[in-house]
Specification:
alpha/beta, EC 4.3.3.7, schiff base, TIM Barrel, 291 residues, 8-stranded parallel β-barrel, single chain, 13 helices, Schiff_base-form_aldolases_AS, 13% strand, Schiff_base-form_aldolases_CS, lyase
C-alpha cells in the first residue's frame, strides 16, 4: 500500500507555457531528497486539463524514468470520457507508473451508477492499481461513499483520494471500506486529522512548497502521534490556506518560482498569480520557514 506524503506535483513550464523538462527532473530530485513518499504526476495541480495527450504521456514517462523506482509514481489519468481515461491509464501503465489516479468525470455530471460503470470499465480494461479521486468542488460531480464501497470490491481499485474536506464523511468511508483499501486526503487543511482517523496519506499541494514538513506531519499522523502531527501541521497551516487564494495551481506555481524551483509559466485559461496576493503567499512561506 502506498502511504505518506504524496506530492501533487506541479508541471513546471517556461514563461511561454512550454513544459520545462529540465526543471521537472530537478523537482523530482528536490522531493526525493526532502523525504516525499510518492509523486503524483499530471493531476489537477499538474495542469492535466491543459496538457496535450502527448505531453501528458511524456510527463508521466519522464517522471517514472527520473524516479527510477526510488518512490512510487502515481499517474493522473482521469477524464470525463471513459474511453479517454482508459487510453491515458493504459499509456501510464506502459510507461511504468505504479498506480493511476482517476478523477470523477467533470462537467457531464454522471449518476452514481454511471460513476460505478465508468470506473469499473477502466479497471477491467487496464490491469494497474487504480485510485479514485473525488473532488466535487472542481468537478460538479460528487461520488457518494456507497459508490466508493461498491468500487472497492474490484481488485485493482485500491484506494480513493477524498478531497471533500469533510472529516465526518471521511471517517465513515474509512470504516466502510475493506482494510486493504486506502483512503487518502486530498485536502491539506484536514489531512492530518483524516490520517489520525485511519487515512493512509495525503495527496498534497502544500508538499510542493514545504515537502519536509508535510512528510514529517504524515509520518507522525500515521504513527498515531497526534500532538506532534498537529504541531508540525500548524507551522504550515497558513500555506494550506494561502495556496488556494486563487485556483490551484496558480498560487503554488508562483510559490515554487519564488523558491527557484521553476519559472512562473502557466497555461491559459489559468493566469499568473495576481499581484495583490503575492504578499500573503510570501508571508505564509516565511512563516513555514521555507523562504
Amino acid at each position: 500500500m502506498i502511504t505518506g506524503s504524496l506530492v501533487a506535483l506541479i508541471t513546471p513550464m517556461t514563461l511561454d507555457g512550454a513544459v520545462d523538462a529540465k526543471k521537472l527532473d530537478d523537482l523530482i530530485e528536490f522531493h526525493i531528497q526532502a523525504g516525499t513518499h510518492g509523486i503524483v504526476a499530471v493531476g489537477t495541480t499538474g495542469e492535466s486539463s491543459t496538457l496535450t495527450t502527448e505531453e501528458h504521456a511524456n510527463v508521466i514517462r519522464q517522471v517514472v524514468e527520473t524516479v527510477k523506482g526510488r518512490v512510487p509514481v502515481i499517474a493522473g489519468t482521469g477524464a470525463n470520457a471513459t474511453h479517454e481515461a482508459i487510453d491515458l491509464t493504459r499509456s501510464a501503465k506502459n510507461a511504468g507508473a505504479d498506480a493511476c489516479l482517476l478523477v470523477t468525470p467533470y462537467y457531464n455530471k454522471p449518476t452514481q451508477e454511471g460513476l460505478y460503470q465508468h470506473f469499473k470499465a477502466i479497471a477491467e480494461a487496464v490491469d494497474i492499481p487504480q485510485i479514485l479521486y473525488n473532488v466535487p468542488g472542481r468537478t460538479a460531480c460528487d461520488m457518494q461513499n456507497e459508490t466508493v464501497v461498491r468500487l472497492s470490491a474490484i481488485k485493482n481499485i485500491v484506494g480513493v483520494k477524498d478531497a471533500t474536506g469533510d472529516l465526518e464523511r471521511g471517517e465513515a468511508l474509512i470504516n466502510a471500506v475493506p482494510s486493504d483499501f486506502a483512503v487518502y486526503s486530498g485536502d491539506d487543511p484536514t489531512a492530518v486529522s483524516l490520517m489520525l482517523l485511519g487515512g493512509k496519506g495525503n495527496i498534497s499541494v502544500t508538499a510542493n512548497v514545504a515537502p519536509k514538513m508535510v512528510a514529517q506531519a504524515a509520518e507522525q499522523a500515521l504513527s498515531g502521534l497526534s500532538d506532534q502531527a498537529h504541531a508540525t501541521d500548524s507551522a504550515i497551516a497558513s500555506l494550506h490556506q494561502n495556496l488556494f487564494l486563487e485556483s490551484n495551481p496558480i498560487p503554488v506555481k508562483w510559490a515554487c518560482s519564488q523558491l527557484g524551483l521553476c519559472d512562473e509559466g502557466i497555461r491559459l485559461p489559468l493566469t499568473l498569480l495576481s499581484q495583490p496576493h503575492h504578499s500573503a503567499v510570501r508571508q505564509a512561506m516565511i512563516e513555514a520557514g521555507v523562504l
